[in-house]
Amino acid sequence: MTETTGLALGLRALTKRYGPVTALEPTDLDIGAGEFLTLLGPSGSGKTTLLNLIAGYTEPSGGTIRIGARDVTRTPARHRNIGMVFQSYALFPHMTVAQNLAYGLEARRVPKAEIARRVEAALALMQLEGYGNRGVQQMSGGQQQRVAVARALVIEPDVLLMDEPLGALDRQLRRQVQVELRRLHLKHGRTTIYVTHDQEEALVLSDRIAVMGKGRIQQLGSAAELYARPANSFIAGFIGESNLPEARVTSVAGGMALADIPALGLSIEAPVVPGVAPGAPARLMIRPEHLRLLPDAGEGQDAGEGIGARIIEVIYLGELTQFGLETSRGAFLVARGMEGRGLRQGDTVRLGWSPRDVLIVPDTGP
Amino acid sequence: MSGRRRLEVLTLLAPALILTLVVFVLPLMRFMALAFTAPDGAFATFATLAESPVYRRVMLNSFVIAAVVTAITAALAWPLAYMLARVRGVWFTLMIYGVLFPLWISILVRTYSWMLLLERNGPVNRAIQAAGLSDTPLPLLFNHTGVLIGMVHVLLPYMVLPLYGAMRAIDPRLMQASDGLGAGLWQSFRRIWLPLSLPGLAGGATFVFLLSLGFYITPALLGGKTSIMLPTLIVAFITEQFNWPMAAAASITLLAAVTALMLVATRFLKLDRGMFAR
């Protein structure tokens, strides 16, 4: 995690409504200086609305935005000193690469000699030396993406915003650029807010991830926190994969709950996250890698603990193998691991897991 | 194989080529050849034109009027095209039909309508007097004013549509990006919007300028005897003086002037360089 020295951006009760539709519920968010924060969510989750509000392209319906000590809620975008990288890059097509980079500096009335120096430095930072006089149309997609980042960084913004900047690149290039962006962030150390719907991208890049859904931040935390203790079933399903059978909670005490799992036909005791209460809809989270496959030993010693299931699907993933399983009650579960190479479709197995690896989470619906 | 290909292409093009050649190119060349058949010598007609103050004035008048019409349509079309590129739904439909509708009405009808509107005791003059802007009726017809009003009206769509096309193609995010980089409204307009809409402006201006120079009906009807443009003069050579060589010489001069002007303009605007292409 990058070292943070104070607050770069603070949102208080920031809200956006379009008529009767709420695009962003009242949202509080604090971002430390130098932090790389990702807004992760499916389309329509409010992440782009939040980004546009911070950039100043959208007027908030309520709440405040602070950059450092300045209240910029009513400040037009051009006075916010924010660098923005658009998904479409939005490079000025009639200008060269160097003219694109110089644009923001000219608007700030930076002296000519300094503009030339800073443009050169930005080109060097993005490994675009020698491309200054190229027309942006002549650049490849990956190069245009770097020009867009350079143009946003050269103005030395207080906050760097990136709106799905890798969306237009093919998969191979995307992986490479992810790593580059991460290294770049360590180099320039600017506070960055990154919007994506790709959870892998979020995991690679971020110090913290804000998972967005239904116009609100569902959970905010490091990748490891979100993965280990998701706040609800939406996040459990969105960060990584998970089996999420329904859980009927009968009692909660001391961070543990007793629950019936109808799909598995058993009662268990498992840790809970806040928000789980008897009678409230909840789900049991079992990560595929935590589900263990035991050969059906009939009268074996573990027989009493496990659940019977039939393998209906075997997918070879290289170092891992993934199994699709149907329990005797008709529920479908996924298991993934390095074991079980000898198992085949149609085999019956018994399923087991360690009680501390599962979690009962509130059900937020589909 | 390629020889056969060429034959196929030629066969397919032949009807159109032959028709164009027979009913357009040949008569045109024959008409232009007339310029060199005057009894006083092959180039006598051009000498007469060059010495004639009337012809010079008409030529100048034509180019000035065409230039002014182009400038006025550009000024009127620019905000209209801007709005067209931004509005959606019903407003867009209303506006685009407002632009296109006049094109569906005969130029003759539109020009006569302007005569009714602009005459001494017409509604325009009555409105001006009722508003107290003038005590006496203004001379709006049979002069430059009448020609300009009529031509601007007829030619406006030819400026609006290319401009609208160019503006529609501008990614609105470019303006957001400019804004975010710290540029003010005027700067964003001058450095992003204006240069990116210039190809449309150049296209529209070319259209309007060329159409203006060749315009006959509207200047003839609304210009009267005081604002004569070249086509009117050429027609007068033929119908009033039965002087075909002079008409042909005037046509050739107009064609040559337009060609020269367009060559300079393309050179100057660097349209072929794709500088403004998206």
Give the helices and strands, then pairings.
The complex is a heterodimer of chains A (366) and B (278).
Chain A: E1 7-18, E2 21-32, E3 36-40, H1 47-55, E4 62-67, E5 70-71, E6 82-85, H2 97-107, H3 112-125, H4 141-153, E7 159-163, H5 171-188, E8 191-196, H6 199-205, E9 208-213, E10 216-221, H7 223-228, H8 233-238, E11 246-253, E12 256-261, E13 266-271, E14 282-285, E15 292-295, E16 307-316, E17 321-327, E18 332-337, E19 348-352, E20 359-362
Parallel strand pairs in A: 3-8, 3-9, 6-7, 7-8
Antiparallel strand pairs in A: 1-2, 1-4, 4-5, 9-10, 11-12, 11-14, 12-13, 14-20, 15-19, 16-17, 16-19, 17-18
Chain B: H1 2-33, H2 44-51, H3 53-86, H4 89-100, H5 107-118, H6 123-130, H7 144-168, H8 172-180, H9 185-213, H10 217-223, H11 230-239, H12 244-269
Question: What report would you give on this structure?
Answer:
The complex is a heterodimer of chains A (366) and B (278). With 366 residues, chain A is an alpha+beta fold. Chain A has 2 domains: 7-228, 3-Layer(aba) Sandwich (Rossmann fold), CATH 3.40.50.300; 242-366, Nucleic acid-binding proteins (OB fold (Dihydrolipoamide Acetyltransferase, E2P), Beta Barrel), CATH 2.40.50. Helix content of chain A is 23%, strand content 34%. Chain A contains 8 helices and 20 strands. Chain A has helices at residues 47-55, 97-107, 112-125, 141-153, 171-188, 199-205, 223-228, 233-238, and strands at 7-18, 21-32, 36-40, 62-67, 70-71, 82-85, 159-163, 191-196, 208-213, 216-221, 246-253, 256-261, 266-271, 282-285, 292-295, 307-316, 321-327, 332-337, 348-352, 359-362. In chain A, the strands form 4 sheets. A 6-stranded mixed beta sheet of chain A has the order 6-7-8-3-9-10, sandwiched between helices. In chain A, helix 2 (97-107) crosses helix 3 (112-125) and helix 2 runs parallel beside helix 4 (141-153). The radius of gyration of chain A is 25 Å and the shape is elongated. The two termini of chain A are 33 Å apart. Residues 299-304 of chain A have low confidence and may be disordered. Chain B has one domain (54-273): Orthogonal Bundle (MetI-like fold). Chain B contains 12 helices and no strands. Residues 272-278 of chain B have low confidence and may be disordered. By secondary structure, chain B is mainly alpha-helical. The radius of gyration of chain B is 23 Å and the shape is globular. Classes of the chains: A alpha+beta (366), B mainly alpha (278). At the A-B interface, strand 6 and helix 2 of A face helix 8 and helix 9 of B.
